[in-house]
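Working notes for the structural subgroup meeting. M.R. asked for a predicted model of this chain before we commit to crystallization trials. I am recording the input and output together here so anyone reviewing the notebook later can reproduce the run.

Input as submitted:
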Amino acid sequence: MGRTGEAYADQRHRLTALGDGQTALGGAVSVGRTASLATGWYSTSATGGYWHRLALGDARLPGELAYSANFTWSPDGRFGLGPMVYGFHRLGGSDLNKINWDDPNAWAVCGRSRPRSAVGCPSTHATRRCTSRG
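Returned structure, recorded in token form:
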């Protein structure tokens, strides 16, 4: 897998930039299961991956671990609800007080993590013409 920030690389020094303007190569492993219940169904999945971030000029960039997990339960087949967790963790990087903020790669070299979670994520699902009955 690959991702690139080339479209906004020249804006990477700005606080409002869409990203840190770098390119990364990586891979991920994903597992999941969906099954029927007496009434409704459930679905669960988890993904973990690693991004090797390519250097930006002289800046050596630390890699990142990315992760996600979710569970959805649908009591009637149409509406679902469940928790989710996702985010990333940069393996290394500089502390904010040690970064040269005049460097356009300042955001790319800072150490950071971004875990996010939600307790109740509602969803809707189609119930017609999804399975064949015979």
